[in-house]
Amino acid sequence: MSQFEFVRILNENSSSKLIVLEAKHIEAKEDETNSKAVVIFEKPHFSLDESKGLLTVNDHSLQFHNDVFRKFSLYPGKPLNTVQGTLIYPATDAQISKYTFQEQFIVDESYEDWVNLTEPYIKKSAFNYQWVYNILDHKKETERIVLEDTDPESGFVLLPDMKWDGKTVDIMYLVAITHARDIQSLRSLDGDKHLKMLQNLLEKCLTLIETKYNLTRDKIRAYVHYQPTYYHFHVHFNHVKNQQMTMRDHSLKNVIENLKVDKDYYKKVSLEFLVKKNEGLYESYKNRIESASQ
Ligand code: M7G
User: Fold this and answer.
1) First CA to last CA across the chain, in angstroms?
2) What is the structure's pLDDT at 183?
3) Which of ligand 1's atoms lies nearest the C-alpha of 98?
4) Percent of the chain whose pLDDT exceeds 90
5) Mind listing the pLDDT tens digit for each residue in 8-34?
6) Residue 145 backbone zone (phi > 0: left; psi -120 to 50: alpha; other: beta)
7) Catalytic residue among 234, 236, 239, 250
8) pLDDT at position 48
9) How far is residue 147's CA from residue 140's CA, in Å, rounded to a whole number?
10) How much is the CA Rg of the chain, to the nearest whole Å?
11) Which helix (H) or strand (E) holds 66?
């Protein structure tokens, strides 16, 4: 981190105790394009042991005292003063944009909109899926894999999401990535082709998580994002306590049920999603959004 200097705040969130900065490499030349970084600082979740340790911290100052209410600032040492840092370097403009606070709009996307506006944007953007292929090809994060089904059509790799420390079960966050490389998103799903794969993935991942993390399945949320950031099909697995539900979440169980009712369900329904003003996809829907606000 000391190789980077502050450029600007991209976002901050007081409820999740998070700040996102743009930084640049200290040795970067003025016109160098590859020198930008995104740095995320987060105050980590407290474990029971840590909170016991905090009770014994002597170094503190009293902020106020009123009747039975006292508020302190505590100054603990290691490891209780840990701050988690995530570094994305070099960061593309798209990544910087993704982490920058922006006005948001709801788009109601019909299947025709997907074909005419969204999919062309995805093709044009030529997203980089290297991290996904590195995992599927066992080139990176191999030791973090907790389950793999190697079947090229119905198989997947399950591993801790980048956002999880891999330890605190209350904030469990795993991601299952399909071996099939041609499923972009919910819109690609076809009941005839993909139902077995989805059922296989859901059942095997839930069974593994139940055993490995000692959780019952009513504590595990399995869902797909629409729109995702990465258009290679993957499923998020969270502890119900972790992560607020968002508009992007589509429960995998519901997805399976919808495809059972109609194999072309996701080629018929309209799907709502949020788009930020600084995202590439906003441009595709700009006319519609602007004319709605006039
Ligand atoms: P998404 O729904 O496409 O986008 O999910 P989101 O990031 O907006 O949720 C992709 C998921 O993959 C996210 O939960 C990321 O945290 C996770 N992820 C992204 N990268 C680059 C990595 C990585 O390199 N390793 C792992 N294990 N997870 C990643």
Assistant:
1) 46
2) 97
3) 8
4) 81
5) 999 998 888 999 999 999 988 877 778
6) beta
7) 234
8) 87
9) 15
10) 22
11) strand 60-66
